[in-house]
Amino acid sequence: MPAGCNDETNEGTTRQKMRPKIGVIGAGIMGTAHGKSIHFCRKVGLIDCDFVALAETDAGRRDGYAAKGGVAWTTDDAHALIASPEVNTVYICTPTHNHKELSAGR
Hints:
Layout: E1 9-10, E2 13-14, E3 21-25, H1 29-43, E4 50-55, H2 59-69, E5 73-75, H3 78-83, E6 89-92, H4 99-103
């Protein structure tokens, strides 16, 4: 389990539980698939998280995704989502050539 996700002691340090606050970048095929997976895993109790944000440059796609997925905060700026203190877990669901630049944001 990643550091910060449980409360076990490791070499004298205590880890605290961290509730994932998920943001998805991209509302295309991969972003939609990941969003559906997040909702399914929440529904059946596999993860305890909040799906809080979506970044998508296409306004129609962004609004439709947010309405269906119940995402409260949307933006057209992926860097704003990455920088948001309300998001601590980011799914980058854009074309592969964007990943390196976006993953350098945090």
